[in-house]
Automatic annotation (TrEMBL), chain A:
<keyword id="KW-0472">Membrane</keyword>
<feature type="transmembrane region" description="Helical">
    <location>
        <begin position="198"/>
        <end position="215"/>
    </location>
</feature>
<keyword id="KW-1003">Cell membrane</keyword>
<feature type="transmembrane region" description="Helical">
    <location>
        <begin position="20"/>
        <end position="48"/>
    </location>
</feature>
<protein>
    <submittedName>
        <fullName>Amino acid ABC transporter permease</fullName>
    </submittedName>
</protein>
<keyword id="KW-0029">Amino-acid transport</keyword>
<comment type="function">
    <text>Part of the binding-protein-dependent transport system for glutamine; probably responsible for the translocation of the substrate across the membrane.</text>
</comment>
<keyword id="KW-0813">Transport</keyword>
<dbReference type="InterPro" id="IPR035906">
    <property type="entry name" value="MetI-like_sf"/>
</dbReference>
Automatic annotation (TrEMBL), chain B:
<keyword id="KW-1133">Transmembrane helix</keyword>
<dbReference type="InterPro" id="IPR010065">
    <property type="entry name" value="AA_ABC_transptr_permease_3TM"/>
</dbReference>
<feature type="transmembrane region" description="Helical">
    <location>
        <begin position="56"/>
        <end position="79"/>
    </location>
</feature>
<feature type="domain" description="ABC transmembrane type-1">
    <location>
        <begin position="20"/>
        <end position="209"/>
    </location>
</feature>
<dbReference type="InterPro" id="IPR043429">
    <property type="entry name" value="ArtM/GltK/GlnP/TcyL/YhdX-like"/>
</dbReference>
<dbReference type="Pfam" id="PF00528">
    <property type="entry name" value="BPD_transp_1"/>
</dbReference>
<dbReference type="InterPro" id="IPR000515">
    <property type="entry name" value="MetI-like"/>
</dbReference>
<protein>
    <submittedName>
        <fullName>Amino acid ABC transporter permease</fullName>
    </submittedName>
</protein>
<keyword id="KW-1003">Cell membrane</keyword>
Amino acid sequence: MSWILDFYNYKIVAQYLDRFATGMAATLTAAGISLVLSVLLGILIALVMLSKKAWLRRPVAAYVAFIRATPLLVQIYLVYYGLPALLPFAKSWSDMAFGVAALTLNSAPYMGEIIRAGIESVPRGQFEAAKGLGMTYPQRLRYVVLPQAFAITLPPLLGQTAVLIKDTSLLSIITVFEFTSAGILLNSERVRPNESFLTIALGYLAIYLVVLLLTNKARAALAGPAWNAGGR
Amino acid sequence: MVERYWNIVVALAPFLWKGFLETLIVSLVGVVAGSLLGFLIGVIRSQRVAGLTGLLGAYIHCLRGTPFLVQLYLFYFVLPNTGISWLSWDSRTAAFVALSIYTSSYVAEIVASAIDAVPVGQSEAATAVGMTRLQRLWHVVLPQALKLTVAPMSGVYVMIIKSTAILSVVGISELTRQGEIAILRYPRDILFIYGVIAAIYFLYCYPVLRFARWMEKRVGSARPTELD
């Protein structure tokens, strides 16, 4: 048994279990809040990108291009150092709040793209029929377009959620104590890289497998409706 | 004001250029090595060899399921710690290997789904004219599949360029790291310096993104369902 302890001493990991738990809670919190906010912002981005008003679409398209063509790490630095200068009330924010803001701003364009593709996949006739019935624009979205778009959107949205959860690891660089930070702490106090980094790798892998399972479940559950049959 | 910023840019230009070159080299090594490895894995995976499919699937999921930062720590701290002499590499080698292996998982998925997108009748017709499995693959399926990989591969290239920023945490002196060093010289201009860094990344990545979109419209693409 001693070779296991040499390679991976789980007793050390057990000593740090509360730190790993705290870190995991922070990771899931950051990912959860960013997920909700970025889906909401993503819906807005999708609606703007689908609108015909160029003065509305252009600035949002520029923002989307900027997010897609620059590294998340640099975006995190820009938000972390830039937001307090831009918004005076952000000066009192915690590191976690800056992290969530950066992740939301980074994730929203990707969510928006998925949602836009979902909305566009709803046949035009559905929208026109709803118009013919005298529904207002919000009603058409709420009762006709979004429920159908949802079926196509959910699996890739869950995939993007997996990316978002992985991206929270970068918050360790702006000193948010999340899951990766717990591993870094163990390594800096005990100099045991195996126990530190294999543990966090396994932790992230566990979350990923849960999300993957949900994605497959969602795909199977939503495969029924007829509007899914034609596209793929 | 403008003059002050201009002076900073002039003073930093040589360092930023050096950083950009390092980003360029690392990303090119990542894309070339990662594509070769990923292509091989993707082709093997598409052949549905018993036993291998599951193994390669596990490889891809392990790389997909963990953050690149964590993978980098594994290659930088854990592998040199194993005691195997050829694994005790320096930070630059660790970064190259980590980036290439990370890339290979994405490329493998793209290649495998592009091969799956080629109509099965093509392969059947090739069988009917007496081609062997390898001949079918090489002369019939791959030429059609590779066309479909161009657009998503450009997307992967952009993803690699963006991932190289993370290499700054193990001390690779690429663009982001050069920015951090520059901030030690101009601590009051953090925001401006990161703005310049972001602009340089944008100039590198945006044309590739436009090319990807253009290719996608022109030849279409086989987008793996799971690719971010």
